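Take a look at the protein record below and tell me what you see:
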Amino acid sequence: MAEDAVVCVSVAPCDLADAEPLGRASIYVWALDTPPTTGLRVFVQTPQGLMPGVVVALPEHPDVLSPDLAPVARLAMLSEIDDAMHWREHFGREEAIRRAAAEADRLARAAAFERESRRRAPFAADPDYVWLCTLARTAGIGLHPTDPRSNETVTAPPTSGTAGYAVAGRHARTWWRAMKLAEAYRWPAADVIRLREIADHWFLLRDRPL
C-alpha cells in the first residue's frame, strides 16, 4: 500500500459498554496515530455530531471511496467506557449511547474553544486586531470571549443606510479593510461574509448612477 494511501475502516454504531455492533456499518477515514484494529471503540463524526462506534472491519478496497467520507474523530477513552457501563446499568442502552455522544460533543467543543483561545491570544495587543474587533461588534458579529475590548477612540461607520458618493466610498473602503483583516486573521467564513455584505452595500451606493 502506498504511504499516502487513504486508510479506511468500517465502523458500526455501538454502546461503548460492550462494543456490540447495533446497526449497519459505514466506511470512515482513519487518520489517527494509533493503527486501526477491529474491536476498537471510537467516536465518528456524523451530521448529528460525534457518535460512539466500534471498528468491525478493515476493508482494503472499499466499494465506495468518496472524498466526502467522514473521519473517525478519536478513540474512546477508558473513562468514557466506564461511564457508559454505569449509564447502561442505571438508565438502559439507548440512554447510555445518547449520554456518551453528548459528552463527546461537549469535550470536542471545549477543546475547540481552547485551541481558538490560544490561536487568538497573540493578537490581543495588535492595533489592527483591536480595530477589527471594534468594527465587528458594530456589525453584530459575536466575537470570541478572549478577544480584546473595543477601542473607544475608533468610530465605526454605519452598517447600512444611505450617503453620497464620497461618504459611501469611504464607508465601503473601511468595511472592505475589515473584511480583508478578518480573512487574514482566519475568522469564520460567516463573519467574513457579513463584513463583505456591509462593504458591498456601500460600494453599490457609491457606484449608483447619478
